[in-house]
Amino acid sequence: SLADYSAFQRRWKRDRQFMRAPLRPPAPSSRLAAAGRMICEADAKEILAEYGVPRTAERLVQSADEAVAAAAEIGYPVALKAQSPELPHKTEAGALVLSLASEAALRKAYEGVMQRLPRPARECLRGMLVQRMAPSGVEVIVGVNRDPQFGPMIMIGLGGILVELMKDFVLAPVPVIQERARELIRSLRGARVFDGLRGRPAVDVEALAALVAQLSRFAAEHSEVIEEIDLNPVILHEHGLSIVDALMVKTGESVPSGATRAVAV
């Protein structure tokens, strides 16, 4: 306990000036203000891009022809994802198709997804997201959950969609600076995986630390509006990272029955 308290004191002295500095007023975002309770991937990424959060190569389209044109520009293989606030979990609804390697496969997938969409999702469909398939790497989850006592908490976990099984995650009140984000990442039990195992290259921990700092700042500056953010999975590469999926939930009315938190805090 004494060692933990000493470490806390050192962090506090280092971060005091940053933490006491007044946060700037929330950046104006017409998308955030106009969005409903559930904000789907395409819109969530647009909002977070205002804070420097990187985006993968992707296009929001409204027809199969537009999807084919987007894939030709982005490059195959691609994923196809329906974008609707009524689809917090696209896989279960059959609204996600991966590794499409040709125009014919993409057109078939587009038709199939449209046929499978439940009526509530179809009625508020924002379009289809055509996204370049991300290279393999180390999967993590980065998110924000609101704690009743501490308010918004940044969360980093190993395993991406398997984070609940692995139960290797850390939490901290927002905001955190990049150096603190790096410390949190290294405190994960499985942090050695970032340094490369069995001949695999080390991954870009600094890119992950920057993402955590950017997301935490956004959550701090919009703490009255944001209930939850899930970037899951985030795939870390030797250089950079790919945010494969995203979900944002605003405070307010009840969440659709299909939505659940990625991790219970």
Describe this entry's structure for a reader.
This protein is of the alpha+beta class and 265 residues long. It has helices at residues 2-20, 30-34, 41-49, 64-74, 103-116, 119-123, 163-166, 178-186, 205-221; strands at 38-39, 58-61, 78-83, 96-100, 127-132, 138-147, 151-158, 169-173, 226-236, 241-243, 246-250. Strands 1, 6, 7, 8, 9, 10 and 11 form a 7-stranded antiparallel beta sheet that branches. Strands 2-5-3-4 form a 4-stranded antiparallel beta sheet, with helices on one face. Helix 4 packs across helix 5 and helix 8 (178-186) crosses helix 9. The longest helix is centred in the first third of the chain and has 19 residues, at 2-20.
Strand fraction equals 15-25%
| DSSP summary: helix tally | 9
How many beta-strand segments?
11
Element pattern in H and E:
HHEHEHEEHHEEEHEHHEEE
Residue windows where pLDDT falls under 50 for at least 5 positions: 253-265
Shape: globular
Summarize the helices and strands and which ones pair or pack:
Elements: H1 2-20, H2 30-34, E1 38-39, H3 41-49, E2 58-61, H4 64-74, E3 78-83, E4 96-100, H5 103-116, H6 119-123, E5 127-132, E6 138-147, E7 151-158, H7 163-166, E8 169-173, H8 178-186, H9 205-221, E9 226-236, E10 241-243, E11 246-250
Antiparallel strand pairs: 1-11, 2-5, 3-4, 3-5, 6-7, 6-9, 7-8, 9-10, 9-11
Helix pairs in contact: 4-5, 8-9
Task: Summarize the model shown.
With 265 residues, this protein is α+β, with helices and mostly antiparallel strands. It has helices at 2-20, 30-34, 41-49, 64-74, 103-116, 119-123, 163-166, 178-186, 205-221, and strands spanning 38-39, 58-61, 78-83, 96-100, 127-132, 138-147, 151-158, 169-173, 226-236, 241-243, 246-250.
